[in-house]
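Ticket reopened. Same input as before:
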Amino acid sequence: MEEVIRVPKQKRAIEKKEKIIDAGFKLICENGYYNTNTAEIAKKAGVSTGIVYQYFKDKYDIFMEGLKKYGDEIFFPILKIDYKKYNLNDLENTLKDIIKTFIKNHKVSKTAHEEITAMIHSNQEVANYFYDRELLLSEHITNIFLENNYKVDHLNEKVHIMIGMIDNLCHEIIYHKHDNMDYDAMTDIVIKNIEYLFK
Amino acid sequence: MEEVIRVPKQKRAIEKKEKIIDAGFKLICENGYYNTNTAEIAKKAGVSTGIVYQYFKDKYDIFMEGLKKYGDEIFFPILKIDYKKYNLNDLENTLKDIIKTFIKNHKVSKTAHEEITAMIHSNQEVANYFYDRELLLSEHITNIFLENNYKVDHLNEKVHIMIGMIDNLCHEIIYHKHDNMDYDAMTDIVIKNIEYLFK
Amino acid sequence: MEEVIRVPKQKRAIEKKEKIIDAGFKLICENGYYNTNTAEIAKKAGVSTGIVYQYFKDKYDIFMEGLKKYGDEIFFPILKIDYKKYNLNDLENTLKDIIKTFIKNHKVSKTAHEEITAMIHSNQEVANYFYDRELLLSEHITNIFLENNYKVDHLNEKVHIMIGMIDNLCHEIIYHKHDNMDYDAMTDIVIKNIEYLFK
Amino acid sequence: MEEVIRVPKQKRAIEKKEKIIDAGFKLICENGYYNTNTAEIAKKAGVSTGIVYQYFKDKYDIFMEGLKKYGDEIFFPILKIDYKKYNLNDLENTLKDIIKTFIKNHKVSKTAHEEITAMIHSNQEVANYFYDRELLLSEHITNIFLENNYKVDHLNEKVHIMIGMIDNLCHEIIYHKHDNMDYDAMTDIVIKNIEYLFK
DNA sequence: TATGAATGAGTCTTCATTCAT
DNA sequence: AATGAATGAAGACTCATTCAT
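Engineering reply: fixed in the latest deploy. New output:
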């Protein structure tokens, strides 16, 4: 019976913790770690400053839990893609699809990534996170090719180059800071290049 | 009475200002803006904390002057290259040369860049600096091609793609975090790809 | 609406209150008032933090009730001794007995006393408690002598001196921090001195 | 030349540091470590909160420096006495002199001691301080006797007992909480007892 | 009654900036 | 011009106490 009564309490507590993570991580991603203080986080989460420290060791802990919770989704959404759905016989459309996926979460990801990047140097845990995921991303994409019987030399290297190209392209498309750029053309060029890469 | 930021005219004064910029910018690039305090900067510069504010409006100003002074050298050394020296008939060696130039300053540049990137979002001036230089870099490289009578469609886009590829390649080579990568092969692949791009 | 401190009447409630007093007073005696927090007390007592404030006005109240409950037992166990049992014709053995009694509870008492003493200055109630008990202790011991027809001048003063000597002796014996001390000899000397005192 | 100019600055800085120690240690001795906050200390010292941390690592450091500076003077003034001045042939007057010395600084000492005692348990450094001084005090008094060719058994033990008696006596005299006490008589009794002790 | 989540005032400490000298 | 001591606002974190359930 006690169990039954306690459950909603736990649920509420969990929800509150989630709210703090969400608020904290969002603020940090938007404004940076040092431009975000615990009072703001608490306020945005709709809680008092005190409760924050009931759920988290310190401010850094909030951030780290946010990174664990949303990191993949924000920075590496492509990891969630089921590569079995791809048919690399139609590489062009596959790439277009991947590019679309990249773009979809790229905007928030890029800002967040840049606000956070500085922490990679001062904090090993953050550095490890990104290192691990980049490795996974490479492996993941490589697997897509392997599954589709793409047999090329230096697959690892080529995948890495490809990811970089797509990443740059997406960044460019999203921010399109350069008004003398034709993004459709750019996309085509990138795709052609990748096709050349894996020929 | 309005505070007056002194413009040093005497040699010693100028040297002092330079020392502060050098010390401050170096520390910020290495450890980040928020992990560097003015006392450290003054100490490393060999001056008193008070004098800092005779030459600079605030801590941010030190950083900004450092960026103006060293930014190009660190982040965009390639802008300093005389493109007339290149002969694009030998594109391969030209690219190898460019890659070498990138790599040379890339290491310090990359750490610095990552420590600083976060400031792009909170500060328009920093954002503008990088935006302007990226534009210049594109133009600069584009000019190398134009000077060498490379006439291709979408030159701007291709140059941008090329710069991205080189940038990624250099980053990978310098940090070579991935032990399953063959960097020589990777370099060759990138060069081949760029050649394909401009064919 | 005024807060009401509940006076527990049901057995379970009374037990709960006792548990809180016991846990709280013990922790405070061991670690000090400011090094003990209510969460710890509640946890050690096996109750929720909230319930504490149903039985006690505040943290200080817990301590004070603990002092009232255990103070005599810990700090003044000698007050519980039935002085009729003593035969001061055999002063030596009587003193040895008293010393033994002192020592028995001295260890816990001394730590507790030292952790608590600071509160004497900031709180009149605590000060009064110790003042009253010291008085009682003097009276009590004095009575032992009176009952045994010890008629000496300045009995009050002598009793006070005696208590001090015994207290110091016990403290020394228990902590025996000084390795150049012969505690048996010391005890003998003290007893001799007290005998001299009441001759 | 620089040296010459710098000296007064250093002097002022040292004075300020002293002021903080004095204010901090006094407040802590009077009100206790946990009842004294850095803002109060700074205010009483006539400085800003910030400067405190230029001179001291933390609040505890202020206390500890105060203990080192004033500890002996407050808690063990007798250590400063030149024991060569004593002639133990006239033990009575010597003791009266010692008692006077004890009493002089006893009042502040006792309050301070009690406020501080709690820290002995949580902090080894404080514990060591008092342990060392008590040892020194014993040695010091013992030396007075040795210098005066007092040859008795168990000198250490007797000295310890004597110090305890004097300490208690002084405490009683200063606070004279017990209105049924004749302090002159008590002093005489104590002196007689000590004489008996060393006979 | 009982729970334990929640509150928010209070504390220590840091650091960009100012000021007396 | 130069020093470095001084300022004080701001931030992270704690904890006695209250409150919704």
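Residues 1-8 of chain A have pLDDT under 50 and may be disordered. Residues 5, 8-9, 37-39, 49-50, 52-53, 58-59 of chain A lie near DNA strand F (CB under 10 Å from a C1'). Please confirm and we'll close it.
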